[in-house]
Amino acid sequence: MIPAAFDYYRPKDVEGVIALLQEHGDDARVMAGGHSLIPMMKLRMAEVPHLIDLQDIAALKGIAIDGDTITIGAMVTQHELINHDGLSAAAPILSEAALQIADPQVRYMGTVGGNIANGDPGNDMPGLMQCLDAQIELLGPEGTRKVAAREYYEAAYMTDREDDEVLISVRFAAPTGGYSYEKQKRKIGDYATAAAAVQITKAEGKVATASIAMTNLSDVPVWSEDAGDALVGTTCDTEAMKAAVAAMLGDIDPTEDNRGPVAFKRHVAGIILTRAITRAWDRA
Ligand code: FAD
């Protein structure tokens, strides 16, 4: 299908974006890589009379690793995440997850900011950012503010971001210990039936900390504090993993769709989380 007619803007700085968002209100939307927004416009599920392209805004680009703090600009693409040498060493879970998003063509265009801002429960970056305890930086008419990724998502396609705010960057402490991003999908290029992001640190042969987040198993990403707590102080033995899976299953709320009925999704979620914990523990 062909999208409805729209006016196209390509400002050179973020202030220009904010001014356009203030001028046009609900009728304006920003576009990053366009690989979620344009399909929605073509299907006429999103009507955007004023489309603001972020491609020319240098301030939204770039990856900075400053000591143990990592900052990723909103317009960094998934391809750049995978191919950035420093980032792959400092936070390897990012490239492991990004490599499981769609296909190379989508990853050349799809951005970190667009993936986080979109609010689609099937997007992989939101759960990953919750696992890493990232802070999301937003800029609006009143200035900047930060929101924890674990508090950013309200419902499907509903986030804490106001209509006149732009997602600028995402920031987190470089993770330590073992990691894993496991994803079950129907075929290459598909969104997750279930995905799990896991970071584990080890001390004296036992789990010191564990962070677990699940994707596409509720209308928002699910950071399961209880699942992580179930592993702490254990040797990640079978009983501990079963306890973590049971805790995670208490936190998710999948619905039936073309990826399967609820019982199937819960079964897959358990298997995927067990695999992710096993691999993260082996790497810790
Ligand atoms: P856009 O489409 O440009 O924008 C998406 C939304 O976010 C829009 O509402 C836009 O207004 C808003 N937005 C964008 N940037 C900002 C910003 N800086 N500030 C405020 N709001 C902003 N994703 C996955 O995670 N996993 C997958 O498996 C996957 N498979 C895919 C398969 C296909 C065939 C396709 C086409 C896409 C797939 N995607 C998948 C989605 C892809 O990763 C998208 O690129 C991503 O979700 C959105 O990024 P974008 O840069 O294209 O954002």
UniProtKB/TrEMBL annotation:
Q: Domain (FAD-binding PCMH-type): give its ranges.
A: 1-177
Heme as UniProt keyword: no
Which Gene3D superfamilies does UniProt cross-reference here? 3.30.465.10, CO dehydrogenase flavoprotein, C-terminal domain, Uridine Diphospho-n-acetylenolpyruvylglucosamine Reductase, domain 2
**Keywords for this entry?**
FAD, Flavoprotein, Oxidoreductase
Which domain of life does this protein belong to?
Bacteria
**Is the Glycoprotein keyword given for this protein?**
no
The record ties this protein, via PANTHER family, to: XANTHINE DEHYDROGENASE SUBUNIT C-RELATED (PTHR42659:SF2)
Q: What is this protein called?
A: Xanthine dehydrogenase family protein subunit M
